[in-house]
Design a protein that fits this description.
- By secondary structure, the chain is an alpha/beta fold.
- The chain has one domain (15-129): Oxidized Rhodanese, domain 1 (3-Layer(aba) Sandwich).
- Helices cover 45% and strands 16% of the residues.
- It is built from 8 helices and 5 strands; from the N terminus they run ααβαβαβαβαβαα.
- Strands 1-5-4-2-3 form a 5-stranded parallel sheet.
- It is globular.
Length: 130
Protein backbone atom coordinates (compact mmCIF):
# COMPACT_ATOMS: atom_id res chain seq x y z
CA UNK A 1 0.00 0.00 0.00
CA UNK A 2 2.92 2.34 0.68
CA UNK A 3 4.06 2.05 -2.93
CA UNK A 4 0.53 2.83 -4.17
CA UNK A 5 0.31 5.92 -1.96
CA UNK A 6 3.73 7.13 -3.12
CA UNK A 7 2.60 6.88 -6.74
CA UNK A 8 -0.39 9.17 -6.16
CA UNK A 9 1.50 12.38 -6.94
CA UNK A 10 0.30 15.77 -8.19
CA UNK A 11 1.27 14.62 -11.68
CA UNK A 12 -0.92 11.53 -11.31
CA UNK A 13 -3.97 13.46 -10.07
CA UNK A 14 -3.34 16.48 -12.28
CA UNK A 15 -3.47 14.31 -15.38
CA UNK A 16 -6.63 12.55 -14.17
CA UNK A 17 -5.07 9.09 -14.37
CA UNK A 18 -7.35 7.91 -11.57
CA UNK A 19 -10.66 8.68 -13.26
CA UNK A 20 -12.61 8.01 -16.43
CA UNK A 21 -15.78 9.54 -17.79
CA UNK A 22 -18.73 7.20 -18.26
CA UNK A 23 -18.70 7.88 -22.01
CA UNK A 24 -15.02 6.95 -22.34
CA UNK A 25 -15.53 3.85 -20.23
CA UNK A 26 -18.44 2.70 -22.40
CA UNK A 27 -16.05 2.77 -25.38
CA UNK A 28 -13.68 0.27 -23.75
CA UNK A 29 -13.75 -3.15 -25.32
CA UNK A 30 -13.92 -5.28 -22.19
CA UNK A 31 -14.94 -3.54 -18.98
CA UNK A 32 -16.37 -4.12 -15.54
CA UNK A 33 -18.54 -1.42 -14.02
CA UNK A 34 -18.06 -2.04 -10.30
CA UNK A 35 -20.90 -0.69 -8.18
CA UNK A 36 -19.69 -0.43 -4.58
CA UNK A 37 -22.98 0.90 -3.19
CA UNK A 38 -24.80 -1.08 -0.51
CA UNK A 39 -27.18 -3.87 -1.47
CA UNK A 40 -30.05 -1.61 -0.43
CA UNK A 41 -28.90 1.21 -2.71
CA UNK A 42 -28.29 -1.11 -5.67
CA UNK A 43 -31.58 -2.89 -5.00
CA UNK A 44 -33.44 0.41 -5.14
CA UNK A 45 -31.87 1.60 -8.38
CA UNK A 46 -29.74 -0.91 -10.27
CA UNK A 47 -27.56 -0.45 -13.34
CA UNK A 48 -27.46 -3.58 -15.49
CA UNK A 49 -25.76 -2.48 -18.75
CA UNK A 50 -27.70 -5.03 -20.82
CA UNK A 51 -27.33 -2.98 -24.01
CA UNK A 52 -23.66 -2.17 -23.55
CA UNK A 53 -22.33 -5.56 -24.59
CA UNK A 54 -18.73 -4.59 -23.90
CA UNK A 55 -19.42 -3.73 -20.24
CA UNK A 56 -20.50 -5.99 -17.40
CA UNK A 57 -21.97 -4.41 -14.28
CA UNK A 58 -21.54 -6.00 -10.87
CA UNK A 59 -22.54 -4.82 -7.42
CA UNK A 60 -20.17 -5.65 -4.59
CA UNK A 61 -20.75 -3.41 -1.58
CA UNK A 62 -17.55 -1.86 -0.25
CA UNK A 63 -17.62 -3.93 2.93
CA UNK A 64 -17.74 -7.15 0.88
CA UNK A 65 -14.87 -6.31 -1.50
CA UNK A 66 -12.14 -8.17 0.46
CA UNK A 67 -14.19 -11.37 0.62
CA UNK A 68 -15.42 -11.17 -2.99
CA UNK A 69 -12.35 -9.77 -4.76
CA UNK A 70 -12.07 -12.93 -6.90
CA UNK A 71 -15.32 -11.92 -8.63
CA UNK A 72 -13.52 -8.92 -10.19
CA UNK A 73 -11.50 -10.02 -13.23
CA UNK A 74 -7.99 -8.53 -13.25
CA UNK A 75 -7.77 -8.80 -17.04
CA UNK A 76 -10.60 -6.33 -17.59
CA UNK A 77 -10.74 -2.56 -17.24
CA UNK A 78 -12.52 -1.76 -13.97
CA UNK A 79 -14.48 1.43 -13.38
CA UNK A 80 -15.63 1.89 -9.78
CA UNK A 81 -18.61 4.03 -8.84
CA UNK A 82 -20.78 5.15 -5.95
CA UNK A 83 -22.81 8.36 -5.40
CA UNK A 84 -20.10 10.69 -4.06
CA UNK A 85 -16.92 8.79 -5.06
CA UNK A 86 -15.82 8.37 -1.43
CA UNK A 87 -16.31 4.61 -1.43
CA UNK A 88 -15.05 4.46 -5.01
CA UNK A 89 -11.77 6.12 -4.02
CA UNK A 90 -11.25 3.65 -1.17
CA UNK A 91 -11.96 0.63 -3.41
CA UNK A 92 -9.81 2.13 -6.17
CA UNK A 93 -6.76 2.28 -3.86
CA UNK A 94 -7.53 -1.17 -2.46
CA UNK A 95 -7.72 -2.77 -5.91
CA UNK A 96 -4.46 -1.11 -6.96
CA UNK A 97 -2.82 -2.51 -3.82
CA UNK A 98 -4.08 -5.97 -4.83
CA UNK A 99 -2.44 -5.79 -8.25
CA UNK A 100 -5.31 -4.72 -10.48
CA UNK A 101 -3.58 -3.07 -13.46
CA UNK A 102 -6.45 -1.05 -14.96
CA UNK A 103 -8.73 0.54 -12.38
CA UNK A 104 -10.39 3.94 -12.59
CA UNK A 105 -13.01 5.90 -10.69
CA UNK A 106 -16.08 6.92 -12.69
CA UNK A 107 -15.73 10.68 -12.97
CA UNK A 108 -18.81 12.35 -11.54
CA UNK A 109 -19.92 9.17 -9.77
CA UNK A 110 -23.43 7.84 -9.91
CA UNK A 111 -25.03 11.05 -11.21
CA UNK A 112 -22.66 11.25 -14.21
CA UNK A 113 -23.26 7.59 -14.91
CA UNK A 114 -27.03 8.01 -14.96
CA UNK A 115 -26.63 11.11 -17.15
CA UNK A 116 -24.67 9.01 -19.64
CA UNK A 117 -27.47 6.44 -19.68
CA UNK A 118 -30.26 8.76 -20.80
CA UNK A 119 -32.56 7.51 -23.59
CA UNK A 120 -30.83 9.17 -26.53
CA UNK A 121 -27.42 7.87 -25.55
CA UNK A 122 -28.69 4.35 -24.86
CA UNK A 123 -30.53 4.36 -28.20
CA UNK A 124 -27.29 5.14 -30.04
CA UNK A 125 -25.51 2.26 -28.30
CA UNK A 126 -28.32 -0.23 -28.88
CA UNK A 127 -28.57 0.69 -32.57
CA UNK A 128 -24.81 0.37 -32.98
CA UNK A 129 -24.84 -3.18 -31.57
CA UNK A 130 -27.48 -4.44 -34.04
Amino acid sequence: MEQILKSLTIDFFGKGKHKISPEKFFEIENGILLDVRSKEEAGSISIKMEYHFNVESINIPIDEIPDRIDEIPKEKSVAVFCPANVRSAIVYAYLLSKGFPDVRIVEGGYSALTEALKPGKVLKVSQKEK
